Amino acid sequence: MSALVAAAPSRPVADGATQEFSFGTADFERVRALIYQRAGISLHAGKQAMVYSRLSRRLRETGHRSFGSYLQWLEMASGLSGEQEWQEFVNCLTTNLTAFFREEHHFHAFAEDLKARGTSNPRIWCNAASTGEEPYSIAMTVAEALGSGSGARIVASDIDTKVLATAGRGVYPADSRGLSAERQRRHCLRGTGANAGFLRIKPELAKMIEFRSHNLMAAQWSLGEPFDFVFCRNVMIYFDAPTQKRVLERIHAVMKPHGLLYVGHSENFTDSRALFRLRGKTIYERV
Ligand SMILES: C[S@@+](CC[C@H](N)C(=O)[O-])C[C@H]1O[C@@H](n2cnc3c(N)ncnc32)[C@H](O)[C@@H]1O
After folding, report:
1. Residue whose CA lies nearest to ligand 1 atom number 26
2. How confident is the model at residue 18 (pLDDT cuts 50, 70, 90)?
3. What was the pLDDT predicted at 12?
4. How far apart are the first and last CA of the chain?
5. Which sequence positions are flagged as catalytic?
């Protein structure tokens, strides 16, 4: 890691103010090692400014005056409050960009796959569910393909507890990207009064989904019965190759034979032929 972010506290930040906390290469390296150990996330050298801005808020909230002091405190933290601070640290450093029906071709293929499988109660796992747009898009597709009375179950998980709380509320701005007017009418309740401009996902759709915290790096995965379909999209890009391989092996182990895995547009697992066979554009069949 070569680049130095700011050895001195006087480095100007984007808005022209002086930098509030000193943040040098050693601090960045420490953050980088910690988030890799905890979440498998590999931060490259260009991410110093992002780390500074995301963690500065946490330093302020916890009353620390330097990154060194905060990181030392974090590493010493133990018990429940320690776990809570580690969770805050992770929540600060995840990137949660998502949208309804993102990479829409997957949902067309998924609808066809659902019908072709002929099972009325598929088990589906969305494992980097972020703020919920993805699992709700999955639930909408299930309802449209199999009817609202199907016994489909969706486990929607993420490492970030803050985004999961948003997901669990199921409330989104009415102008959210990716949600057509037809789907808004069919699957959402429109807010009125103080809630004007917002949509709530209908309860019959929301009840298909169980939201839970799950770290793809966790030693133990207890996710219940094997899955027919797994969505693992736009999370592996944050992992290095050995981590991706390990996670892929574990996903393989929690899927049914011939189950389908949907991955992000820049994720490619064609090297893992013993586990997954390419079935379509970024869609793999479990061997
Ligand atoms: C860019 S979002 C992708 C959201 C969604 N899958 C999509 O494609 O729109 C990446 C998500 O992966 C989650 N994530 C990162 N590391 C993780 C880990 N080790 N275990 C589980 N989720 C993780 C982040 O919290 C974030 O919400």
Report:
1. 96
2. confident
3. 36
4. 39
5. 54, 158
With a cut of 80, say whether residue 79 has pLDDT above it: yes
Looking at residue 1, its pLDDT comes to 34
Ligand 1 centre to CA of 119 (Å) is 28
Q: Is the pLDDT of residue 11 over 60?
A: no
Task: Using the mean position of ligand 1's atoms as its centre, give its distance from the Cα of residue 233 in Å.
Answer: 8
Question: In this predicted model, what pLDDT tens digit does every residue of 150-166 receive, in sequence order?
Answer: 999 999 999 999 999 99
Secondary-structure percent of the chain, ordered helix, strand, coil, rounded to 5? 45, 20, 40
- Rg of the chain over Cα atoms, rounded to whole angstroms, equals 21
What backbone phi and psi angles, to 5 degrees, belong to 115? -70, -40
Mean pLDDT confidence for 54-63: 97
**Ligand 1 centroid from CA 158, angstroms:** 6
Q: Give the Cα separation of 28 and 49 in Å (integer).
A: 10
Distance CA 9, CA 24 (A): 9
How far does the centroid of ligand 1 lie from the alpha carbon of residue 249, in Å?
A: 18
Q: Which atom of ligand 1 is nearest to the CA of 264?
A: 8
CB atoms within 10 A of CB 139: 27
Would you call 219 exposed, middle or buried from its count of C-beta atoms within 10 A (0-12, 13-18, 19+)? exposed
The whole model's pTM is what?
A: 0.93
CB atoms within 10 A of CB 263: 24
Among 158, 212, 251, residue to substitute to test ligand 1 (most atoms within 8 Å of Cβ):
158
- pLDDT by residue (tens digit) across 178-217? 999 999 999 999 999 999 999 999 999 999 999 999 999 9
Closest by CA to 254, choosing from 214, 286, 283, is: 286
Pocket of ligand 1 (CB under 6 A): 39-41, 94-98, 102, 128, 130, 134, 158-160, 163, 215-217, 233-235, 238, 264
